[in-house]
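WARN retry 2 of 3 for item q-0093 after timeout on previous attempt; input resubmitted unchanged.
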Amino acid sequence: MQQSNPGRNAKRCPVARCEIPWTDDSGEELMAAFDYIVVGAGSAGAVVAGRLSEDPGVRVLLIEAGSAKKPMNVQIPAAFATQFRTNLDWNYDTEPEPCLNNRSLYHPRAKYLGGCSGMNAMIYIRGSRHDYDAWAKAGATGWSYGDVLPLFRKSERNSRGESEYHGATGPLHIADLRSPNPLSESLIEGMVSTGLPRNVDFNGAEQVGAGLNQVTQRRGRRWTTADAFVTPASKRPNFTVLAETHVNRLRIEGGRVVGVEVTRAGRREFHQAEREVVVSAGAFNTPKILMLSGIGPADHLARHGIQVVVDNPNVGSHLMDHPFYLANFETTARGTLANAQSPVQLAKFVASRRGLLTSNIAEAGAFFHTRSGEAAPDMQMFGAPAYFWNNGFTTHDKPAYAIGLSLVGSRSRGHVRLGGGDPMAKPALTFNYFSDPAEMDSMVAGIERAREVAHSVAMRGLTTRELHPGGGAAGRSGIEAEIRRNVAHTYHPSCTARIGTEADGVVDPQLRVHGVAGLRVADASVFPTIPHGNTHAPTVLVGEKAAQLMGAAR
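OK item q-0093 returned
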């Protein structure tokens, strides 16, 4: 490993395995030099850092605000909602949403190595091939479906083996559910009875249809990007991880980023990047860090006393997510996930990694069209052998199942803004869900189809009572009112530092930030538009793409 010049009063850096100089007598600020610094160890950042460190000739620092520890409720698939509102969560809430009766929506974001790959429902969906072709057509050169498919395959270690669409030797384990619930199969039959074809691979030749979801698991346990990319890299002498380290801002000198200013264990530190910094802090925190560093809307930055480096109103703009409604029904079915936390099921999970605790909750899935004339299906349906409401905080005293409707053809745009000039202040989030009337039309159609599934021949005798939307949501007006009262999101924030020109984006197709040298963004914030499906797999793709682009630049 190369070392920076230690200077006369140098002390040994405890984390960087190199000599560092103290910058003042108080020891308040220290410096360590690396070739690449990656900010954020989530679904993309872990990939970027791990891949870059495969080159023994470069020094890589990965900075994570959360812990490096992996609690049991992160490892157990069915326990993901137990992380919400805990110290594993950034614990965000939106501003009052203007089209949702001014409700504020809770939005969890994971805060530890692996990021939201450790807090999501593990569903491995890439989105539609039409998403990537549309990106490329709009100017994102190198991001067409034909361009990105090899990178998807590169990441994958799919339990079904290698094929035209899947890889089998990558570090990210993708598997079929180990103990699928019988009720999930009944839900799939109900979906098919509404006119959908069976689909055994939503990432294959066709996205439309109904079937079981594949998941990011290995032998019944959640498999995060930290498991896949950081753990192997941790054995390399050129790779350093700083956990529980909060990035305050990027330091920019002469139009180039030179490193990051952080707070760790109550002390301010500076870490130098001799080649590039990659911000992979997610769709909320990436624009926040850019704005704190002087990159963003000039008037907004000025209000918070931040010196403007690059005036770009697109930073934090174009925020997208998939509105989400959960229909719940009481059931006569036995063996639902209501029994998942029993001692018997815990023992089964510990002993064999099987049983109810291996469930990702949303086991069954489907894609279909509610609109005509669009290439990609605009609605995703989930079937869960469990009651799920209010992000899992609300329980029900009888067995139930849920049918979730995720509007993957969403159109609404919101924004992320600073909550203050203090780096510790939470960002201000507004999504503007249903500001486009077509979204309400689609969600109403989705709920009507969920009711068809619940009362299909396949579910006859299994469905006893509709809990949500409930009998009060009758007709178009009743359903719409219920949507505004209770719709949430699919935990898929995106597009706040999107690929585009300097006039309409934040980064170019090589993920380089407009106006600042040596700086890239790699996470879901760079999506030009949100993909039609779960966003974890596309975010891993962004990490792979960033590492490929940076390797080509060396």
